[in-house]
Design brief:
- There is one protein chain.
- This protein is α+β, with helices and mostly antiparallel strands.
- It has one domain (about 30-185): Sandwich (Immunoglobulin-like).
- About 25% of the residues lie in helices and about 40% in strands.
- It is built from 2 helices and 13 strands, in the order H-E-E-E-E-E-E-E-E-E-E-E-E-E-H.
- Strands 1, 3, 4, 5, 7, 10 and 11 form a 7-stranded antiparallel sheet that branches.
- Helix 1 (about 1-25) packs antiparallel against helix 2 (about 190-214).
- The longest helix is centred in the last third of the chain and has 26 residues, at about 190-214.
Length: about 210
């Protein structure tokens, strides 16, 4: 009986670790951003040979206090097996520059954020911080009091999903401009499949052990 309890304990730990590895292994190479928190931008390398699934722009936007263009690329990343959402903004005129670019539809996903290279033209403007709303629905690239005229570096959100859907790109200062773009499509079914598979594996191991002990 004691041997069975030890074996069962080790089995549960092993299965738990396996599940953690499967869920988070693809997200180990960047800065994790959790809802309600803020991080400093860091460089993210997109895997060699990654493919662009869909792209947008440059698309013009304007509001009362600024105007510019935005581009977006949805990239299937070979280093993670999941999708990266990459943005680049050019502000062309402003009486009061863009303070924040907010991208939506990120609720229910695990997100790593930062900057990358190789998608838009060379840009020099970096965000000061990157934050996520407490509900986890929007990720904000913050440019301090206002973004200067010019082009940003490539801004990236690396996710743990493999499908995309519609999303919004909002530019915020005293006024707001919105562009329709792309965002991740959460896949709750994949989590259920993973947990179901782990449960089935545990049940199989348990039955085999009982048969061997009888």
């Amino acid at each position: 009986m004691k041997m069975w309890k030890v074996f069962r304990g080790h089995s549960v730990i092993t299965l738990g670790l396996l599940g953690s590895v499967l869920v988070f292994a693809s997200l180990a190479n960047a800065t994790l951003l959790t809802p309600g928190n803020t991080v400093a931008p860091s460089a993210i390398v997109v895997g060699a040979g990654s493919t662009t699934e869909v792209s947008l722009g440059p698309t013009a936007f304007s509001a009362a206090t600024f105007a510019g263009t935005v581009s977006e690329w949805v990239v299937s990343d070979t280093s993670t097996g999941d999708l990266d959402f990459i943005y680049q903004v050019t502000e062309t005129s402003a009486t009061s520059g863009i303070a924040t670019m907010s991208v939506t539809n990120y609720s229910g996903t695990t997100n790593n954020v930062g900057t990358t290279t190789g998608y838009g033209p060379a840009g020099t403007i970096n965000p000061t911080t990157i934050s996520e709303t407490a509900t986890g629905g929007a990720i904000n690239f913050n440019f301090g009091a206002s973004m200067p005229l010019g082009t940003t570096v490539d801004l990236i959100v690396q996710t743990n999903v493999a499908s995309y859907a519609g999303g919004g790109i909002n530019f915020i200062d005293g006024s707001v401009a919105t562009v329709s773009g792309y965002g991740p499509a959460p896949e709750p079914g994949s989590v259920g499949l993973l947990l179901g598979g782990l449960f089935g594996l545990g049940l199989f191991v348990t039955r085999r052990f009982r048969v061997q002990q009888s």
